[in-house]
Amino acid sequence: MTDFDYSPYADAFLATFSRAKGQAQYYMLKSLPEMQAIHELSQEIMELMFPGRCGICTQASCSLEEVVKDQMRKFSDLLYQQVLLAYQYDCPNDNEEKQQLRAREDVQAVLFKLPQIRKSLKLDAKAGFEGDPAATNVREVILSYPCMKTMTIYRIAHELYLRHVPLVPRMLTEFAHQETGIDINPGAQIGSSFFIDHGTGVVIGETTIIGNNVKMYQGVTLGALSFPKDACGMLIRGTKRHPTISDNVTIYSNATILGDITIGKNAIIGSNVWIKEDVPENTMVMLQPPKFTLRDLSKRK
């Protein structure tokens, strides 16, 4: 089809690349954070937090200090590159020196938080072992449980989110979502000793607050009821619109909890429930048992 005249089709297609306010346009070859680099960054995060987890560390003769410092250098360099690209795209009017300074400060802030983040992740892994009788040891949880990959990436992304880094935090958590089926917005606030068993289909919204020692199962949604709009019909952003889950709460599979409500301490939320109101502490919420109809198939003609 080398002689095919595509010009009329190209003109119609190009007309969709308007300069309308609020629309994202990717022409003029502006640099962007690269999803492939975000994938690599995610692997470096996992390897930094748990050396050897991804099989990257192969030099057995190296000391732990050498391995960690080398991994920290790789992580820092790659993170700096992607954060800088994000600022170059999102803040094009800033001069290059200011963009570089902001990116460097963001990386340094994350490095400062690494000890605290790793302690949180160790508690997450411990909660996974203690919460799942199928786990033989903590190492198994770290190496194979999807929750650990998601939480490791999320906890780094959350620190970047708090510093208002554009693009990169959401790209990191979307990579984790792609890998594990667990969708956590980087803005969510999640306490220590958090465990998601199985995990597939879990959704945790941006303004969700989760306390300590919370356990949930697959298919749980912590979402928003509706999206308020201003007088011009535009979504109002930055408001609290997702649930607050207090300490020591257990949420079973496929429960849906919506809106700016609070689930009290020590509550147990049963499977398949739909909750739009506050739940007091020390309360169990569950559906009434369904009525089953049994047929004796052996008597069929």
SSE order and pairing:
Layout: H1 7-14, H2 35-49, H3 64-90, H4 96-131, H5 138-144, H6 146-162, H7 168-180, E1 183-184, E2 189-190, E3 195-196, E4 203-204, E5 209-210, E6 215-216, E7 221-223, E8 244-245, E9 250-251, E10 256-258, E11 262-263, E12 268-269, E13 274-275, E14 284-285
Parallel strand pairs: 1-4, 2-5, 3-6, 4-7, 5-8, 6-9, 7-10, 8-11, 9-12, 10-13, 12-14
Helix pairs in contact: 2-3, 2-6, 2-7, 3-4, 4-5, 4-6, 6-7
Structural key phrases:
single chain, 301 residues, alpha/beta, serine acetyltransferase, domain 1, five-stranded parallel beta sheet, 7 helices, 14 strands
Number of domains: 2
Please give the CATH class of the largest domain.
Answer: Mainly Alpha
- Extended strand count: 14
Helix content: 40-55%
Shape: globular
> Sheet with the most strands?
5 strands, parallel
Poorly predicted sequence stretches spanning 5 or more consecutive residues: none
- Separation of the first and last Cα atoms: 63 Å
N-to-C order of helices and strands: HHHHHHHEEEEEEEEEEEEEE
- The CATH topology name of the largest domain reads serine acetyltransferase, domain 1
Radius of gyration: 23 Å
> CATH homologous superfamily of the largest domain, by name?
serine acetyltransferase, domain 1
The helix count comes to 7
